[in-house]
Amino acid sequence: DLMSLKRMMEKLGVPKTHLEMKKMISEVTGGVSDTISYRDFVNMMLGKRSAVLKLVMMFEGKANESSPKPVGPPPERDIASLP
Q1: Alpha carbon distance 75, 27 (integer Å)
Q2: What GO cellular component entries does it have (predicted)?
Q3: Other CB atoms within 10 Å distance of the CB of residue 39
Q4: Integer Cα distance of 65 and 57 in angstroms
Q5: How many DSSP H helices and E strands does the chain contain?
Q6: pLDDT tens digit string along 5-29?
Q7: pLDDT tens-digit series, residues 58-79
Q8: What is the pLDDT, as a whole number, of residue 6?
Q9: 2-62: which CATH number, 3.30.450.40, 1.10.238.10, 3.90.180.10, 3.20.20.30?
């Protein structure tokens, strides 16, 4: 949301006006939404081809957002199988 993004930008040391924030969000979302995702925010801040972006996404575990998540209960484990 707009105010959360505004606070985040202020914490990063890049304060923006309300209108600048609206413009940034509309550029990222194409004017479709008033909110941006974490990945879109990082893309906006670092640039799409940034090596830092790839490292951040890998570290955050968000590089493969489309990977399927396991379904069902976890397998049973006993004490011997723990590290």
Answers
A1: 45
A2: actin filament; ruffle membrane
A3: 15
A4: 10
A5: 4, 0
A6: 788 778 878 788 888 888 888 887 7
A7: 777 665 555 667 788 877 888 8
A8: 82
A9: 1.10.238.10
List the chain domain ranges: 2-62
Distances (CA, A) of 22 to 40, 46, 52, 75: 15, 19, 26, 47
Q: Which two tokens stand for residue 61?
A: 């575990």
Confidence grade of residue 37 (pLDDT, cut at 50, 70, 90): confident
CA distance 43 to 41: 5
What percent of the chain lies above the pLDDT cut of 90? 0
